[in-house]
Amino acid sequence: MKNIFYFLSTLFLLTGCMSGKLDKFDKEMSSGDYEAAKAVAQKEGKDLLWTLQAAAASTAAGQHQESNTLFDNAEDMFIAARRKSNAADRMGTLAKILVNDNAVAYKGEMYDGILINTYKALNFMFLKEWDLARVELNRAYDRQRRATDFYAEEIKEQEEAASKKGFRIDVSKVMAKPEIQRLSGLEAYADYVNPLVNLMEVIYLKHKGDVSDAERLRQTQNRLLAMTKSKHLQKELNPQDPWTWVVVENGQMPRRVEWRLDFPIGIFSGLIREMDNLSIVSIAIPKLQTIPAAYNQFVVNGENVDMIADMDKIIEAEYSRALPGILTKALVSMAIKTIAQYQIGRAKGHTTAFFVGLLQAASTQADVRTWSAIPKNYHLAIVQSGTISLTSRGGTLGSTETKGNSLVFFKVSRGGHVTSQTLVLD
Question: Which PROSITE patterns match (predicted)?
Fold first, then answer.
């Protein structure tokens, strides 16, 4: 009994630990102290999540070579996490089942993988390693193509694993609940496309492509225009004049917060049939919490910018696609813990079963880990080179000078801190 109390207290102390670590990192990013943010990430560890955080902070600080070294390491971990195919991994590992998702390594989201290659391409562009930038853009496109089947396969694996454990799950009945439906069915851009990838390729092909790339440029620009309706992309750019592509990376993506559901097993009547004689179950799943931005509209040299990629919508749509798998995973874990509680009650008595129930409630925690350095959205303006001024609500946020064809990358943090980096494209 003493051991149970000790384990319970340990679990309660750990509750919110990951959220607190992310808060500390986010605070430094919001203030614009990207060196400090990188230091926080590197202190936390070298796993996939914190490597991604450190890499993003390095990009924001203009440390493109170091950023790509970190992104290389992150990509290796991202790929390795998806190559595992043993039964234990498909089930989520024993630790995940008996404790919670946070007990195992962060595997990343599909949009994480796409952005890894996109930011590597951006870094290589600033390093003027154009061939390598093109390789990374091709990889980003390939990730988008392969993302479509990922969640369907994940749900199938979870259902097969549950079947091997002796029970069945019909997650469609849970998805039909009104409170769940409000979190599902969201869409952003078709087929997991992130328009930022298309934009980076358009910029690359316009300035570093050759004659053989003309058709690809036309198709990519048309796809981008269809998704964004950008007025700037519809401009007729006189090739005799120097132009500056202004990209604004703004705010912070939604954070994951825990949504805890404790209710009678009767809600799942006929769902997990072997558990109809039990009374109380607990599940915890993550849901998204939108983070307000300091600025929502921007003007460059008197022209309104166009939103190119809404990461809030992309992340919400991917969460919607992942939700059946998240619920299936939570139900598998809940079922195993609850069946264990029932069996212990029969063998050891109700008092022991009661404390095991407390242990189940304490260990039922949602995985709220996320690559929180991702911005809220990206914006675009194309203006003639010279003095480039970014304003919002009538006030100047930043300005820089460009000569020749250029790319200016403004980063506007959640707290409104503004930095800029300039790349000459000629």
Answer: PROKAR_LIPOPROTEIN
SS3 track for 236-285: CCCCCCCEEEEEEEECCCCEEEEEEEEEEHHHHCCCCHHHCCCCEEEEEE
Residue with tokens 């007025």: 231
Q: Tokens for 267?
A: 């809600």
Burial of 176 (0-12, 13-18, 19+ CB in 10 A): exposed
Q: CA end-to-end span of the chain, whole Å?
A: 72
Tokens for 134, please give them: 């093109």
Query: Token pair for residue 239?
Result: 């090739």
**CA 111 – CA 89 distance, rounded (Å):** 21
Q: Is the four-CA dihedral 36, 39, 44, 47 of positive or negative sign?
A: positive
Those residues with Cβ within 8 angstroms of residue 384's Cβ, 6 or more apart along the chain or in another chain: 241, 242, 243, 244
Please give the angle made by the CA atoms of 173, 261 and 49, to the nearest 5 degrees. Answer: 100
The pLDDT of residue 332: 74
Lookup: tokens for 283: 């599940």
Q: What residues does 380 pair with on adjacent strands?
A: 247, 306
From CA 348, how far away is CA 346, in angstroms rounded? 6
pLDDT digits (tens, 9 = 90+) for 362-402: 566 788 999 999 999 999 999 999 999 999 999 999 999 99
Burial grade of 2 (CB within 10 A; 0-12, 13-18, 19 or more): exposed
In angstroms, the CA 268 to CA 341 distance is 17
Greater pLDDT, 87 or 254: 254
27 exposed, middle or buried (CB, 10 Å; 0-12, 13-18, 19+)? Answer: middle
Nearest partner of 245 among 393, 425, 61, judged by Cα: 425
Amino acid 276: pLDDT: 52
Instruction: Report residue 412: phi and psi, to 5°.
Output: -115, 110
pLDDT number for residue 260: 78
DSSP per-residue letters across 12-31: HHHTTHHHHHHHHHHHHHHH
Q: Please write the tens of the pLDDT for every residue from 398-426.
A: 999 999 999 999 999 999 999 999 999 98
Residue with tokens 């390594």: 105
Name the residue type at position 367.
Answer: D
For residue 319 the two structure tokens come to: 């969460």
In this structure, the dihedral spanned by the alpha carbons of residues 107, 112, 117 and 118, taken in order and rounded to 10 degrees, is -170
Closest CA to 343 of 334, 332, 331, 356: 356
